[in-house]
TrEMBL record:
Underlying gene: Cntn4_2
Protein name stated in the entry: CNTN4 protein
Keywords: Cell adhesion, Cell membrane, Disulfide bond, Glycoprotein, Lipoprotein, Membrane, Repeat, Signal
UniProt keyword Lipoprotein, yes or no: yes
PANTHER family the record matches: CONTACTIN 3B-RELATED, PROTEIN SIDEKICK
CDD domains found in the cross-reference section: FN3
GO cellular component, one term: plasma membrane
Phylogenetic classification of the source organism: Eukaryota, Metazoa, Chordata, Craniata, Vertebrata
Species: Oriolus oriolus
């Protein structure tokens, strides 16, 4: 920063720039005669990229030299990294997120420092130049890429960067995001009447597996199955509430309406249901069957 005129204390004001390679003893000096000068460029074609130098700046006028600033370490310009990251891996976390990790370039194969990494991600049916770009900072060697399309094939590549630019790209790796979770209510009671030894009928989306949950007083039990029916052995003298919902790699779908199974005292009673009600009565036999029918609306 330049010295204000009121602090120059005389005519003939200028600056003395002293610098030396880091770790050496002898200082090189040059005079910058303009009091408004705020920079000095030292040119040396043999200077290696990103070379550290110690620098201090002093002042002078017609009466003599003043004091120097504290010593600061500065670096010559650097080159962009010359090697690509290695061991790039990607895995799907959800329908919209993937995680990518990598190893830094070998130390003896790149010049200049690495300030971070740039991850590029593009869908299989997109052009690479339109890829989503995410930058990490420092030594971080993994990151999450979000807001992706579900059940889609993506390509990912990584390259290092610094102030000079980005280095070469790694080979692209492929990952497919998980299927999206179902967004609507998937299970509904059909309009068929229900009798003892007759099944309950429900509908659910294809490619989704049903999960059957029932409440017994204050406790909850869950059955997971990839079949379209399940047999439950339940004591007839207690109340039950049954829910059914599908699940897949993308997550759980929405639950059906609750099906209430009230306790009964008549061991030979039978119940009935309708399309407008999810309540029914089960016979006193301790086994019921729940069946599911697929709806191919995905």
């Amino acid at each position: 920063q330049t010295v204000p005129e009121e602090l120059q204390n005389g005519g003939g004001f200028g600056y003395v720039v002293a610098f030396r390679p880091f770790g050496t003893v002898s200082w090189m000096q040059t005079v910058v005669a303009s009091p408004d000068a705020a920079r000095y460029v030292f040119r040396n074609e043999s200077l290696p990229p990103f070379s550290p130098y110690e620098v201090k700046v002093g002042v002078y006028n017609n009466k003599g030299e003043g004091s120097f600033s504290p010593v600061t370490v500065v670096y010559s310009a650097e080159e962009e990294p010359t090697r690509a990251p290695t061991t790039v891996l990607a895995r799907s976390l959800s329908a919209s997120d993937v995680e990518v990790s990598w190893a830094p370039p070998w130390e003896n194969q790149h010049k200049g420092r690495i300030q971070g990494y740039e991850v590029r991600c593009w869908r299989h049916d997109e052009k690479e130049e339109n890829a989503k770009r995410i930058r990490t900072v420092g030594n971080q060697t993994s990151t999450k890429v979000s807001n992706l399309r579900g059940n889609a094939l993506y390509h990912l590549a990584v390259r290092a960067y610094n102030t000079a630019g980005t280095g070469p790209s790694s080979a692209a790796v492929n990952v497919t995001t998980r299927k999206p979770r179902c967004q609507t209510s998937l299970c509904q009671v059909s309009g068929q009447k229900i009798y003892q030894a007759q099944p309950f009928y429900f509908t659910f989306f294809r490619e989704a597996l049903p999960s059957v949950k029932w409440n017994r007083q204050s406790s909850t039990s869950v059955i997971e199955t990839n079949r379209t029916s399940v047999e439950l052995s339940l004591p007839f003298d207690e109340d039950y509430i049954i829910e059914i919902k599908p699940f897949s790699d993308g997550g759980d779908g929405s639950s059906s309406e609750q099906i209430r199974i009230p306790k009964i005292s008549n061991a030979y009673a039978r119940g009935s249901g309708s399309s407008t009600s999810s309540a029914c009565t089960l016979s006193a036999l301790s086994t019921i069957m729940i069946s599911l029918t697929a709806r191919s609306s995905l």
